[in-house]
Amino acid sequence: MKAVTWHGRRDVRVEEVPDPVLKESNDAIVRITSSGLCGSDLHLYETLGPFMGEGDVLGHEPMGIVEEVGSEVGDLKIGDRVVVPFQICCGHCWMCAQGLHTQCETTQVRDQGMGAALFGFSKLYGEVPGAQAEYLRVPQAQFMPIKVPEGPPDDRFLFLSDVLPTAWQSFVYADVPKDGTLLVLGLGPIGEMACRIARHQGYRVLAVDRVPERLARAAGRGVEVLDMREVDDVGEEVRSRTQGRGADAVIDAVGMEAHGSPVAELGQRIFNALPKRLTAPIMNKAGLDRMAAIYTAIDAVRRGGTVSLIGVYGGQSDPLPMLTMFDKQLQLRMGQANVKRWVDDIMPLLTDDADPLGTEDFATHRVPLAEAPTAYDNFQKKQDGTIKVVFQP
Ligand SMILES: NC(=O)c1ccc[n+]([C@@H]2O[C@H](COP(=O)([O-])OP(=O)(O)OC[C@H]3O[C@@H](n4cnc5c(N)ncnc54)[C@H](O)[C@@H]3O)[C@@H](O)[C@H]2O)c1
Ligand SMILES: [Zn+2]
Ligand SMILES: [Zn+2]
């Protein structure tokens, strides 16, 4: 089959790889009809490269049709239309029972000290072949696949694999009080969807980015947007719009590739130029994240407010302004999204004919796998109006 594979920093290729086969009795094989490209893939494309293996299949936002099933997959049937969560989880361990599927004790990658395995996400997360491919082996298929109705286009449901539950969790974790103001940092797919969810629930939302078409899309849905190329002190600007206090809650939907951290950016560049065998141990010990967005979040949140980190950070010892965080009495919440935890809450919005979250207009590009190298490049550089790419194998 054809698949998008990793070959080095900013080097993805579309290659023939062996078709996946059933390995366990609770596996299924899904023929992929749509597969998203995510901001998390950009970390693998750039900063997290040291943890990738040459030829690893990328991608973790799959949707498709069940083609084959093992003998222990419950009521999953060949021909079912399914979305598959980005994390691999069993549904019956203690963590899954708490709704903490990203900590699943059946799939935790213990030799790396990490939580649940993820599709297409480096050695840190189990090096499981990913979903930007024609077919995907789905482990834990007695629990993983989310069955969706026939009829509506894929995009109605595809974003249940990652974007929707991630944005939803970031919003729930932000715990915006009634009549409160939410500030969202970053208007990539995750930040923008978090804005849509908060607006749909009637909240006032401010948001920051530097990419004109991303700002415009959010503004079109009633978000008060701040262009970071023009506003040099986001905290001040937010306070000036919130009676001097700051936002009740802030979602950081930027993560480790943030703009505005010149020192860490230089560090990341030097780091990226080093041979891989040297950089993986450094990454485990050092702080290589660009912390600009977190610092902005800590500054712009009001005293006693909540910061919800949904952007991915990867270094082990980034310095944080602990003095300010403690003094401001911040509530800090974070983590990978527990996809299954939120599906039942989100589904009614997807089966609503009015499509209140605008899923059908969310993707800006639908392309074949063959265009993956260009799509990655455009998404990273934010060229060609690229906000959300969906591969259609
Ligand atoms: N926790 C999870 O489960 C989960 C799931 C999916 C994605 N993510 C993470 O969420 C983050 C966003 O993903 P995405 O797909 O939206 O990616 P993206 O890269 O398209 O979006 C990031 C946005 O942040 C903006 N930005 C950069 N620096 C900024 C700054 N200092 N202040 C404000 N905005 C800034 C960029 O211009 C860009 O629009 C990534 O870190 C990704 O890894 C987390
Ligand atoms: Zn993702
Ligand atoms: Zn589990």
TrEMBL record:
Q: Does the keyword Transcription apply?
A: no
* Signal peptide boundaries: none
Taxonomically, the superkingdom here is Bacteria
What PROSITE patterns does the entry give?
Answer: ADH_ZINC
What is the enzyme's main class? oxidoreductase
Keyword hit for Hydrolase: no
Query: Which residue range or ranges hold the Alcohol dehydrogenase-like C-terminal domain?
Result: 189-257
Q: Mind listing the UniProt keywords for this protein, alphabetically?
A: Metal-binding, Oxidoreductase, Zinc
Name the UniProt record assigns to this protein: S-(Hydroxymethyl)glutathione dehydrogenase/alcohol dehydrogenase
* UniProt source species: Nocardioides panaciterrulae
